[in-house]
Protein: Aminotransferase y4uB
Organism: Paracoccus acridae
Amino acid sequence: MSLDIRDIADMDRRSVLHPFTQLKDFATGKTGDPTIVTGGKGIRIQDAKGNQLIDAFAGLYCVNIGYGRDEVAEAISRQAYQLAYYHSYAAHTTEELARLSDRLVRMAPGKMSKVFYGMSGSDANETQAKLVWYYNNLRGKPGKKKIISRERGYHGCSVMSGSMTGMSFYHDHMDLPMGLIKHTGAPHHYWGAEPGETELQFSARRAQELEDLILREGPDTVGAFIGEPVLGTGGITPPPEGYWAAIQAVLRKHDVLLIADEVVTGFGRTGAMFGSIQYGMEPDLITVAKGLTSAYVPLSAAIVGEKVYQVMEEAADRIGSFSHGYTYSGHPIGAACANAVLDIVEREDLPGNARITGEYFQAELRKAFAQMPIVGEVRGVGLMGAVEFVADREKKTRFDAGLKVGARISAAARARGLIARAMPHGDILGFAPPLVVTREEVDQIVGLAAEAAREVMDELAGETAL
Ligand code: PMP
């Protein structure tokens, strides 16, 4: 490095507006120096002080193929030398873009037709909102504009995608959500179910609540429903039994499109290539990002189903061209990177590893945590998992938020060289390691996390004894 650590930290503190950071604590040094990340290999990253950290969250559940894969770096470099950029407006393309799009249409579940590209999950969901409006305008149903998402759903933080996100702290002080977005109950059995309510009964109740909302708003005003096959940022929560079947029956009845937000679940994380396949979803529109390039470069896509696309094409003689697109839509370096990443995903059968090593991971997580007195629930699927910490298991009561139990366990893990993420909505430790993780690495991850939890559990016992 040409600058020393102190210079980089000072320069950063003076000039970077960091996402999801308490600005004053950072500016005054209370939260310490930024971690300067210098390298990564496999499931590990390295910081400027030479510390190695196991990244059990794959960045932000995105580096699915692991860090430091030469063949992806080479594909990016090859494309940069050959043609770093050309746009895809007005029927221009590149070989990599055509190959990627053909591949995505074939890989994706259901009857998909076309792929539109962006740079982030947020902008792809912004595109999905416009596609819902466009489709309904073109087919003569201009009233069908509202989009329903779930409490605890995460869909991004741009204006529409941030509105879809069902977490108030993404809205507060930022004038969101926009009025066209409505929220319905979270598919979270542990916190949402009535005493004794089975998962099937709970799913039926959530579907009924959705139908009530559609009827209240008026079916002629509701265009789409958006959901992650498995809730991610809202707590890494697989859907309760029967959930998607019950929800889809309501959507079909009221002519409401389904947008599957596969930004986290796409390309193998749940143990299938897409979460929609695993849970029997038949989406009309699919959003992908993160795993598409394993975050080696930014790229996202809105995959458009046949039903929506046909209406768009049929209207074209009447209305002219499709007036939506970014300078970087279909960027050749993004496309080349995605092709190289998907070659690895397929060749190494990473969905298969997420299923097989994922089963082991889920079992070990339960073995290590389920009996701890401060653990309310251990949940997950494939290579995404979470441990929910509670003050009282029997009464299901949360810890006082001021105790910051989740954040402390995450920090204690970090001190042991493990990155596991403290998630919002309570005290939740989340895991989403790269999909190349091995059994031995799972043992290390679970072992270090359990040690961290025990350390904080002992501290809490001491604090309450005082
Ligand atoms: N959808 C889901 C399900 C996500 O988890 C995320 C990001 N965590 C997004 C959308 C937004 O993606 P981005 O941060 O790339 O805008």
The chain has 16 helices and 15 strands.
